Amino acid sequence: MTNTWQQPLVLADPKLASLRFTDRRNKTRRWFNNAFVSASHFAFVLEPFGSQDFQLEARYADIIPEIPNVDFDFQRFSVDLPAGACTVRYEYRIDDNFYDGDTHTRLSDLMEMADESNATAWTGEVVSNTLSVTKPSS
Q: Among candidates 71, 81, 91, 70, which has minimal Cα distance to 17?
């Protein structure tokens, strides 16, 4: 993400579950959550002309991570994909209906953080390019 504005922006943390996987039949695939916990960090301030990179790693529901120090979200979330080709894109949206069930954050929380940070709460929608991926057969 890059802030091209002249003032700081408050943005909600990007979420892994905002990756949208679609199979060959054009069916959006479901995400699974293996641990019900609430995250405490929900947003960040992006300074004028600043950038922030995020890496989102998704795993197939039929793969169980065996690495003890792997990222918690990688262990926690998985997507149900059949073998074969599918597409994936990232959808990032903050509007009046914004609600993050993981942190229980609403747009009003982002606006409060923006007031405290002398920033603006960003609203809008960003959709990435669509990528083709193939899940190998087991």
A: 91
Q: Which 3-state string (H, E, C) describes 65-122?
A: CCCCCCCHHHHHEEECCCCEEEEEEEEEEECCCCEECCCCEEHHHHHHHHHHHCCEEC
Decide: 114 and 125 in contact? Cβ < 8 Å: no
β-partners of residue 84 are: 135
Question: Using one digit for the tens of pLDDT, what is the confidence trace for 44-69?
Answer: 999 999 999 988 878 888 877 666 66
Q: Residue 55 to residues 13, 71, 106: CA-CA distances in angstroms?
A: 12, 11, 23
Residues 6 or more apart in contact with residue 47 via CB below 8 angstroms: 3, 8
Q: Which of 136, 102, 137, 129 is nearest to 19 (CA)?
A: 129
The CA distance from 21 to 59, in Å, is: 12
Backbone angles phi, psi at 96, to 5 degrees: -60, -25
3-state secondary structure of 43: strand
